[in-house]
Write a structure and sequence with these properties.
It is built from 15 helices and 13 strands. It is an alpha+beta fold. The strands form two sheets. Strands 5, 6, 7, 8, 9, 10 and 11 form a seven-stranded antiparallel sheet that branches. A six-stranded antiparallel sheet has the order 1-2-3-4-13-12. The radius of gyration is 51 Å and the shape is rod-shaped. The termini are far apart.
Amino acid sequence: MRTPHRIDARLRPNPYEELGALDDGPVRETPAGDFLTEGRDEDAWAPPDHRRGGGRRRKNRFAGLPLAVKAVVGLAVLASFTALADRWAVLYAEHRAADTLKDRLDLAAAPEVEIGGFPFLTQLADRRLDSVRVTVPDVAADRVSLAKVSATAHDIRLDADGLTSVRGARVPRFDGEVQLSFADLNRELGASQVTFTGEGRDRVRADGTLPVAGHDLRLRAEATIRRQGERGIATDIGNMRLDIGDLATYRPGTRPSEGLHLTREGTAGLARETRKAKALLSVPAMVRRLGVPEATVRAALADDGKLTELTGSPRFARTAQDLNLIDLALDNPRVLRRLGLDPKLLDSLSGLTRPVLADRLSLAFELPEPEQGDVRLRDVRVEEDGIRVRVSGSGLSVGG
């Protein structure tokens, strides 16, 4: 068997001798102070500068603009500050004017004031304003409230020495609008639960209930709106009726078609209920007004079949609807009870005349008369949400 070849240890290279051979000369000791000061003569490190032109500062761009451009920019800045000051002056003047009008006119709240025209300070220096719009909400006018009164005055002349010393103003002319809201009417005249709605250009329909002698009667009426004089609005109430259920209808007045009358359903009940028919035919005055022969009446009272035949005839139904039951109520209260009518209710209806009922539904009002100048109503129209009135005036004076 072959013996492995062994390398003599004396032939292997010494690693320490190889490291020593790498040094070209003797090792020189460097003092610690030299090590710390080494490299100070070299330039200190700084981050690289990527700007154009090295470390030169950037020039002011505004300085390089042409003089004309600078002037335009300056004027724009000045105009902005001037407009801001003018706007502040307008707001201040509007606030002062609103407070003055509130005190002069004894209003519950300050009105809205909007001064037109620009610039305001130039107008103030000239003591003249192009236009001023004033809006006053909730103005009391007789029994109702005006939802809004708005007016625009033109070419106002001021009595003033400056923004804070305006003593008064003269208004050569103005135009405006008065609004009477149906919502306000329903609330203010709602003690009888009546609602108002527009019906045509000059008509208002009233519909609701009216309490009379403990009974809630349905109320229907129409009001025609018209101008009255130079500052007033009048209402003509017509087609008034109070429905007592399906039995009868009351229309205030003295004409034959007015008074208390049975409805079609009421006269039909006479044919169905013999008790009511006999109660009516037992009154001689009613029989004469019905135009029924006495022999026919006696036969009907004795025979229910003939009674039904009589009361069910078209002629009898038409005649019965024409009867004014108010007359019957005065002398025959028992008969009314048999018909289903409360005598106390009929007594109250007798006092509910046309003027009384019309006053409850009146929408009339009149604008206050100014101490100076002239105010007139120009046009009245009924719209979906209320009544609108155009107004105009001249020669008004406010303040001193």
